[in-house]
From TrEMBL:
InterPro entries: CoA-transferase_III_domain (IPR050483), CoA-Trfase_fam_III (IPR003673), CoA-Trfase_III_dom3_sf (IPR044855), CoA-Trfase_III_dom_1_sf (IPR023606), Formyl_CoA_transfer (IPR017659). One of its GO terms (biological process) is oxalate catabolic process. It catalyses: formyl-CoA + oxalate = oxalyl-CoA + formate. It holds the Pfam family CoA_transf_3. This is Formyl-CoA:oxalate CoA-transferase. It comes from Mycobacterium parmense. Keywords: Transferase.
């Protein structure tokens, strides 16, 4: 393996659950020395949530905390706070995602941290921005999806707002914070000074919902949205409706049934009618007469009976598995993919080869599957290792900070670590 890009960067990972840990885990994959600072009483809550093996760290924890070290310490004691301050003086980055005000209550405000170490970059996740009327709220994934515009625009028009299975509020916010921290590290090269980088989960969700804000503006101007199933036969109100499985751009698409859908909940493909590929699409689905038929040959003509067209395509799909269908359609350059189940993803050999799904060893659990690094570099391959046990590196870290064996023993005896 080549030199790790972030080697030498010291990160204090004062995070929990998913948003913060997702950010710091990727810093660790890129080579930073990431020290997870956890409560002595159980550590990060995800160590205990939804355990599949008694007394062994849950997969929720192991999948978000690989390549890190763990220091278990009560930072609310004077001795614990002193350790934190020593760590801060020596670190490049501190990341936290506690409830609003928790860092201040611990005596670790941004102002104090900046004074202790002006070079340190302070990354912070909250549910909402500081000036939001909801700034005081504690926030989890689905709360953010609802506040960021994802839920009101996801699902079907005759059903309630729906949240996505993708962690738009959690891991997505962590990735936004990662971008901010790396940018602040580059800025520090020029200025020599660190800064506070804040990301709200509401903003991170909204950033992925930008086309829905586009649609709101179009709706207010036009009164309709031509690519939505509600057009032209349904009705629009003054706000963006839920569009089911419609495509978000100018290319209509839908999830279509394939052979076996009656018993297999994932026997479907996503089928896109790409405007510039209409002729070959007709060829692919064996409807050559549609190519020049005025009722079919333009986007506008198709939209009024788009679901009849999808019904016809489903008839063509009826004797094909999702894989057979995609194998045919790819020859005609139809943008499409099978709907893959998590089981298919877990055992997909291509995802294993690319390192997108990896098997990792854990000291107590044995081997487990986790999502690997989604960013591929030409000169560096992240090596993913297991997550640390609670407090596994406490003594090592205290020694690095200059504490002698007697003092470390005393800190243990007093319950500080
Ligand atoms: N030693 C001593 N105390 C510690 C500690 C340590 N090592 N680590 C944390 N604590 C304390 C905090 O200071 C806080 O104390 P306080 O409430 O007296 O100020 C307490 O533990 C609980 O902190 P926290 O985990 O933030 O609270 P919570 O479990 O009630 O709330 C969240 C959890 C996720 C809802 C909340 O942290 C939050 O809204 N975070 C911001 C948004 C976010 O990241 N959400 C999660 C996305 S995955």
């Amino acid at each position: 393996m080549n030199q790790q890009p972030l080697s030498g960067i010291k990160v204090i990972d004062f995070t929990g659950v998913q948003a913060g840990p997702a950010c710091t885990q990727m810093l660790a994959w890129f080579g930073a020395d990431v020290l997870k600072v956890e409560r002595t009483t159980g550590g990060d809550v995800t160590r205990h949530q939804l355990r599949d093996i008694p007394d062994v760290d849950a997969l929720y924890f192991t999948m978000l905390n690989s390549n890190k070290r763990s220091l278990a310490i009560n930072t609310k004691t004077p001795e614990g706070k002193e350790v934190m301050e020593k760590l801060i003086c020596d670190a490049d980055v501190l990341v936290e995602n506690f409830a609003p005000g928790a860092m201040d209550r611990m005596g670790l405000s941004w102002e104090h941290i900046h004074e202790l170490n002006p070079r340190l970059i302070f990354g912070s996740v909250k549910g909402f921005n500081e000036d939001s009327p909801w700034a005081d709220l504690k926030v989890y994934e689905n709360v953010a999806q609802c506040a960021g515009g994802a839920a009101s625009t996801t699902g079907f028009w005759d059903g309630p707002p729906t949240v996505s299975a993708a962690a738009l509020g959690d891991s997505n916010t962590g990735m936004h914070l990662l971008i901010g921290i790396l940018t602040a590290l580059m800025a520090r090269e020029k200025t020599g000074v660190g800064q506070k980088v804040s990301v709200s989960m509401q903003d991170a969700v909204l950033n992925l919902c930008r086309v829905k804000l586009r649609d709101q503006e179009r709706l207010e101007r036009l009164g309709y949205l031509e690519e939505y199933p509600q057009y032209p036969n349904g009705t629009f109100t003054d706000t963006v409706p839920r569009g089911g499985n419609a495509g978000g751009g100018g290319q209509p698409g839908w999830v279509l049934k394939c052979k076996g859908w009656e018993t297999d909940p994932n026997a479907y493909i996503y089928f896109t009618i790409q405007e510039q590929n209409w002729e070959r699409t007709c060829e692919a689905i064996e409807r050559p007469e549609w190519v020049h038929d005025p009722a079919y040959c333009t986007v506008e003509a198709r939209q009024s009976h788009i679901f009849d067209i999808f019904d016809e395509i489903e008839k063509w799909l009826a004797d094909k598995t999702k894989y057979e269908a995609v194998d045919t359609l790819r020859k005609y350059e139809v943008p499409c993919a099978p709907v893959l189940s998590m089981k298919e993803i877990a055992y997909d050999p291509a995802l294993r080869t690319s390192g997108s799904v990896v098997e990792v060893e854990h000291k107590e659990r044995g081997s487990y599957l986790t999502v690997g690094c989604p960013v591929k570099f030409s000169d560096f391959a992240p090596q993913i290792t297991g997550s640390p046990l609670l407090g596994e590196h406490t003594d090592q870290v205290l020694t690095e900070l200059g504490y002698d064996a007697d003092t470390i023993a005393a800190l243990h005896a007093e319950g500080v670590v």
